[in-house]
Amino acid sequence: MSESLPPEPPPFAPFERLRSEQIYHSRWCGLRRDIVRLPSGSEQEYHVFEITDAVVVLPVLADGRVAMVGQYRYPHGKTHWELPAGRMNPGETPREAAARELLEETGLRAGKLSALPGFYPTNGISAHFAHAFLAEDCAVVAEPAPEDSEQLFRRFFTRAEIAALFDAGRLADAFAALPVAYWLRRSGP
Fold it and tell me: Which of 36, 44, 47, 165 has CB atoms 3.0–4.6 Å from 170's, for a disulfide?
């Protein structure tokens, strides 16, 4: 017998925003400085990182293997295993963005695309949200076509290999680790 789902915590009243100033803005991101009134009545500076929403896709081929990308990340200078992911374009739905990123980064097309729970990767500093998807019955239809700033390659893993990477803490990218955790839990042993 399953336990009932606990309720969400009761919501707090939002902080009152007294002032807001755009400190930096580019096509990639922005930084905003807000002055808010805390429940105590005091004022506090709050910095908000602005970035468009994103998608992440866990691609499973018809034979059960999972596609991941080995990708170089400039900020920390490392290459590690990730799932295809990227930002949504203006006017694009999460599902459209997921299909686009899946094709661009892996050359795969999904037979079925279904939502996994999404998440806030940095909710202490940003409203940035990641829409997660499970892509099933994927088939190779092209070679990966990454953008100029992306250095990546595609590799296929068995479910056991994905579980081993996860259990060993080798999925350091949260965009990969969280969808993999949901998938492993749902797909059984």
Answer: 165
